[in-house]
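Notes taken during the Thursday session

The instructor put the following on the board and asked us to keep it in front of us for the whole hour. The protein is PTS system mannitol-specific EIICB component. We were told not to look anything up and to reason only from what is written here. First, the residues (554 in total):
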Amino acid sequence: MTTTSPAKKPGGARIAVQRFGTFLSGMIMPNIAAFIAWGFITMLFIPAGFFGANSPFGWHWAPVAEILGGGGDAATIGWPGAATALTANADGGTYQGYVGLVSVMITYLLPLLIANTGGRIVYGARGGVVATIAVMGVIVGTNIPMFLGAMIMGPLAAWITKQMDKLWDGKIRPGFEMLVNNFSAGILGMILAIVGFFAFGPVFLGISAVLGSIVAFLVQFNLLPVLSIIVEPAKVLFLNNAINHGVFTPLGIEQAADTGKSILFLIEANPGPGLGLLLAFTFFGVGAAKASAPGAIVIQFLGGIHEIYFPYALAKPMTILALIAGGASGVAVNMIFGGGLAFPAAPGSIIAVTVAAIGAGPANLLVVYLSVIVAAVVTFLVAGVILRASRKRDQEAEGDSFAAAIDQTAANKGKESSALGALRTRAAGTTGSGTTESADHDVDAALGGLGGGVAVKQLNTIVFACDAGMGSSAMGASVLRNKIKKAGIEGVTVTNQAIANLDGSADLVITQNQLTDRAKAQSPDSVHVSVDNFMNSPRYDEVVEMVRSQHEAK
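Then, after some discussion, the predicted structure tokens were revealed:
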């Protein structure tokens, strides 16, 4: 019989910042593919790109680069129907030049996607539509890419729409619902677009200018490495999203649009510090931390899941100083030699970093690799000294400290994850202390028991749900999908979603235990099962057996 762990009530400034960061990342992360697409197009077709007029490889693809990258003379090239705009030439004159994809995507597509996503988070599809209309006014009212405006105006417009609908909720005569809903959203969107143009646009322009000035100040006086004092401890405490997605990504996109790359994309995403810390534990750690560190390196460095090294830092808080030193060293290398990424590396895997760095040329890629190596070496050396100095004391105290650090990491994040769950399993197996007691929901009660009983509710649609609906839930869905396939069961759909997108249509919803209450509120009629981690929960076999029993009973 399994037990249900009481949910911890969140509170405090740290949790508030975490929630804010989660909200910001919820707007950015679902649209990362669009950022990557823009990054590839920029990398290939701008004048300094792979196929541009000033290609570092001499691979000029004329006139395609001038059409897609923008700026090509329409009268000379003669490609019919493509959008053009008045463009200034080197002599001070003007001509009709192709608009291309680069400027249009960064000015309109990316901010509008962010606005729509933010609006949907707040108030579904209706909120997303009004948010998109409102942010269009902000975009046209400014002359720079309006990511910050989209991240603020989009959710605000959706919230206003939600409050407006409350005014006549239940008061509309039957048959007039569509008329009222469409016209009210359209009129509100129009008003917010006008307000965004004249009022919010200049405000966001001023905020962006201030933030840009701060970054310029840090660059001018070589102070960017100082940011590691904030970023590295924030990562361990899961406060990095508010900084990374709220400031670095919008400013980095603007910088990359001007110069083809941005150092800001590497301040948080550099995998070097985490690699160095895990290597230090591999050579100088003790017990479970030492044994599990090599496996964690693969997940962190190649998979880009940085949270895997956070328990190691929490088990030995002094090693955060090593992370700061390594992070600052990596930033310094990029600052001195001009390294940067063409677009955000998400997740922070060396593979994603490589793809985002190569666009600015082979020399830039070498600088970025150097920054990763230097960050890893510095972190390794500093952490090695710290671990060696306390090795004897750590061996005497070794026991539950690493497991406690994993628990603390989950508490800091506000939820368990597949990476932490796998780490917990490896740690338990290494120490020989047994497995961690499952905090899964009482699946026997939820599904009717496995002693030959069949759940009353037919399970045809199974949804794994997490915060973003992209990472850990996708892995969990893949695991269960493979188990169902191997069992020879057909007609069962296994997908993954964000909790906010649950619509009540799922027969069974599987979440990590800290998120189950939220999932129940979002989809109250579904059967809910919570697990410690999405990768290796024993509940999966119970679910498969129940589904098999139902199909055999048909």
